[in-house]
Design goal:
The chain is built from 2 helices and 5 strands, in the order βββαβαβ. The protein has about 100 residues and is an alpha/beta fold. The protein has one domain: Transcription Regulator spoIIAA, CATH 3.30.750. Helix 1 (about 35-45) links the parallel strand 3 (about 20-30) and strand 4 (about 50-65). Helix 1 (about 35-45) runs parallel beside helix 2. It is globular and about 30 Å long. The N and C termini lie far apart (about 25 Å). The model has no long low-confidence stretch (mean pLDDT about 90).
């Protein structure tokens, strides 16, 4: 398990579970945090051991349109590499999308 603080607004925890890479996000995904988050997620997809990328938004308080754009980009990048991506934790009642 590895924790990365992108800035004061968001933190990402990375876990490798066999062929699944899970990234749990806590905080706010905004136009300010999106560029670093994008790079981290694309790097995870490049990892040979990451066949399934799961993003857990259960602790995310907010995702703006730049965050949604990243999700679309990650879906496309995973598909282009023959990998799967899963997004979980939306609608947990803790925040807004």
């Amino acid at each position: 398990m590895k924790t990365v603080s992108l800035d004061a607004d968001i933190q990402a925890v990375f876990e490798q579970r066999g062929v699944e890479c899970q990234v749990s996000l806590a905080g706010r995904v905004t136009i300010d945090t999106s560029p670093d988050l994008r790079l981290l997620l694309l790097q995870r997809l490049e990892s040979p051991g990451c066949q399934i990328l799961t993003l857990d938004f259960g602790e995310s308080a907010y995702v703006d349109t730049s965050g949604l754009a990243i999700l679309v980009e990650i879906l496309k990048a995973a598909r282009d590499k023959g990998r799967r991506s899963l997004f979980v934790g939306f609608g947990s009642g803790r925040g807004n999308v």
